[in-house]
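User:
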Amino acid sequence: MAKITIEDLQRIKEKTLHETALRHQQPNVRVTVHMGDCGIAAGARQVMNAVIEELGKSGRHDIHVLASDCLGVCETEPNVTVAVAGQNPVVYQKMNAEKVRQVFERHVLNNEVLTDHTVEVPEPDNSTQTSKEA
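Assistant: Predicted structure:
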């Protein structure tokens, strides 16, 4: 069996540090696929698979892909939220693999919002909450 040299150990250490650092860096873009029951029933798994494929092709490490619960607008599922650093998040509706690939290329990679696929998400109604003043 071959012996491991100090140089081999150093290379392993540097490679490991580099790979783990990629996981902890702040993302420039977050792509969230909403995968509640309604989203999954509407095809969110296929949408997530397409996003992951596109991320792999891009070679970018500053894009994070996340899964999240239902957005609360079930009639527009599958929904995907794209949040670019320093900009308001954009919610895309009725996504499928083909549409989300367009969103990934044009919005995620080239910062071009595809307004024909976006949805307005209602703000939560906070008027029913009571606040107590001291």
